[in-house]
Design a protein that fits this description.
The structure is a homodimer of 363-residue chains.
Chain A lengths: L3 H8 L3 H9 L6 H14 L5 H8 L4 E6 L17 H13 L3 E6 L7 H10 L4 E11 L11 E7 L6 E4 L1 H14 L5 E5 L5 H16 L9 E3 L8 H14 L6 E4 L2 H13 L9 E3 L5 H4 L8 E2 L3 H18 L8 E3 L3 E2 L9 H15 L1
Parallel strand pairs in A: 1-2, 1-3, 3-4, 4-5, 5-11, 6-7, 6-8, 8-9
Antiparallel strand pairs in A: 10-12
The first copy, chain A, binds a DNA duplex (30 and 30 nucleotides) through helix 2 and helix 4.
DNA sequence: CGGTGTCATGACATCGGTGTCATAGAGATG
DNA sequence: CATCTCTATGACACCGATGTCATGACACCG
């Protein structure tokens, strides 16, 4: 590979002059510049990042740690939308700022994080983005003291800058959209109750109900997420059994994510219940591969992963410019409700019922 | 950040001795080694990759170009399985060889490839993996003359090493599995006819049919892929209309990918046809988010993206060791047929029919 | 006891750029 | 024409590692 010295002698100038042409940081006569440029082309010269960053003490690298890239089939916790979309958003921003993203993954094994950070340190990354596979508290202490960091989809209690989805607000808005269609008996098939998202979304769900003056029927809230493992279909059957066991059958079902909604579609069909005529179904994530392809297309709340990635990268870049930072609460990113064919108004008899209720409540 | 000089003076030895401790390439007395190690710990020393690679002329970096990471929502050509899984496989292998993967993405725009390669060259990557989003001919000439490259999911006519899926073999095996259940009237809802995968799989489909002595009914082969765009559901309706228009209705439907199968499930339900009792459905890709979650779970052929990534990385590493390489044909990677609930034997009357036919053919 | 080999260590140059400072000319000015 | 600015360029050191070669301290040998 050609060096700046090769270019210099080829063009009959000093290496420093070549450097000046490269960086445009000092006047160079047009004649010299042309000669240098021609030499660079002729030799196929590309400057060495290593030499540059060594002198400048700036690597121009941002490290990103994720589990997405090698969620091995074994550990595959396909909770919802792949973190990949977060990486997308971050990549776009980082690249625009003329830095390079160094992506590493844990392969699903947290104990590999120190190694990855070590590699980042060898490369002298200027900052680190740590991306979790779903909204959760940070499960470890990140090494790499002194390197600015931004957490994405997770948060710690040290005040490290963190970007998380607004689960409560998203479920609230989605539930409002369901109620706006006239539904009053709304079931909620949640993800695992231990998950951060479940707790927050349940809050949003309850908030929307109570605001509409609808008491929460505990029978209509069931958990049914096994991360896609074999027993899950059975779990959903059972949950639906409970939903439809009572006198007042739900006219709409909220699902913990689009993946659950996909399973619910199939199971409802098997039970002779059609979507959306008999019961409306909504998901969460707006995993478009699912939500747009399902028939009927799925109404869902956007999990704004791409926007979160963008925001995280911006936050990190700001942090790199400003230097110090004070602890702050996680930044919550909101998403849109995507209204599609799976959500319609309940049948007339139910609607009447609802209108009566409504009347009663409001008078 | 501490340097080797800091460590040296802290330990009271020369920088070169610190280097020896780091690399273990020359004898160092235990006492000295302990002092150096202690100094490194005390200072939090991490060697500089830049300085090392400058001296050694080896970057230890492998570049990977993909479109996966920022398939913007606009261009989102969600044809099947995300290339992500290819990246996974490659990452695992590269990491095991103590190299670092530098991942860049085109953001769906091919014209950015030269920039990315340029960045790779600045970092002096030792090799490049180019990953296409679906099986296709390479659409551009890759810059970066002299850098060993391996194509994944695509191929050129220059004999560049390439790793592609065995689409023909996969569809052949899958179709055989369908026929083995006793189906004789099998429809095929293909992806866009221009796609490499469509051509190859159709070959496999036809091969399996003809081997079973079943003539191909052209009416039972329809294309219906719009990459998930809005008009697609209608397209599938129409294709299914044609399938069920004739006297002999298909008892099984092969779909171009799992995503199409997901849409087909919904549309069949709407038409009052149950899966798998009335008609069996199979997909392609084994996109487990879909195939395992759909109810009933989907029989499908594995698109071995992870294995392809592994093979590609290995091929590249071999190439780096051996040096020169002679042009070769693309390496085809086969996948397994995943038998799940969506494929069962056709109803008795059809089976009788089949048995008759079979009898006729065999006698 | 001098010669020789081994072990442990250090001095110094080098990789490919860039920052600092010096300097040769070309014009401008008085 | 001497002096003063600029402009354009080069010499040289340095960033943080490591390869090469040299050397001091012993131990061993005859």
């Amino acid at each position: 590979m050609a060096t700046i010295y090769d270019v210099a002698s080829h063009a009959g100038v000093s290496p420093k002059t070549v450097s000046r042409v490269l960086n445009g940081d000092a006047p160079v006569s047009k004649k010299t510049r042309d000669a240098v440029t021609a030499a660079m082309d002729a030799l196929g010269y590309v400057p060495s990042h290593a030499a540059r960053s060594m002198k400048s003490h700036k690597s121009g690298l941002i490290g990103l740690i994720t589990g997405a890239i090698s969620n091995t089939d074994e550990t595959a916790t396909q909770t919802g939308l792949p973190e990949l979309f977060i990486v997308q958003g971050a990549q776009a921003v980082i690249e625009r700022s003329r830095k390079t993203l160094l992506i590493s993954d844990t392969g699903g094994r947290l104990d590999r994080v120190p190694d990855l950070v070590r590699t980042f340190q060898e490369h002298r990354v200027e900052g680190i983005l740590y991306v979790a596979d779903y909204h959760k508290p940070l499960e470890l202490t990140l090494p790499g003291k002194g390197i600015p960091k931004v957490l994405v989809n997770c948060f710690d209690d040290q005040g490290t800058p963190a970007i998380v989805p607004d689960d409560e607000g998203g479920q609230y808005a989605l539930t409002k959209a369901v109620l706006a269609q006239g539904h009053r008996d709304v079931a909620y098939l949640t993800l695992a109750p231990t998950q951060e998202a479940t707790k927050l979304r349940l809050k949003g769900f309850k908030g929307a109900l109570s605001e509409a003056g609808i008491p929460l029927d505990p029978r209509l809230v069931q958990a049914a997420d096994l991360f896609g493992s074999p027993g899950e279909h059975q779990l959903i059957w059972d949950a639906l059994d409970r939903f439809f066991a009572g006198a007042k059958r739900p006219t709409a079902i909220c699902c913990g994510n689009d993946r659950l909604a996909m399973a619910v579609y199939g199971i409802l069909r098997r039970r002779g219940i059609s979507v959306p005529e008999d019961v409306s179904v909504v998901g969460y994530d707006d995993h478009r591969l699912i939500s747009e392809t399902l028939y009927p297309a799925l109404t869902t709340a956007e999990l704004p992963y791409s926007a979160m990635g963008v925001r995280a990268a911006q936050t990190l870049l700001d942090l790199l410019e400003d230097g110090a930072t004070q602890p702050s609460a996680p930044i919550r990113i909101g998403g849109q409700v995507q209204h599609r064919a799976s959500l319609i108004a309940p049948r007339a008899e139910d609607t009447d019922n609802v209108i009566n209720l409504k009347g009663r409540n409001e008078i």
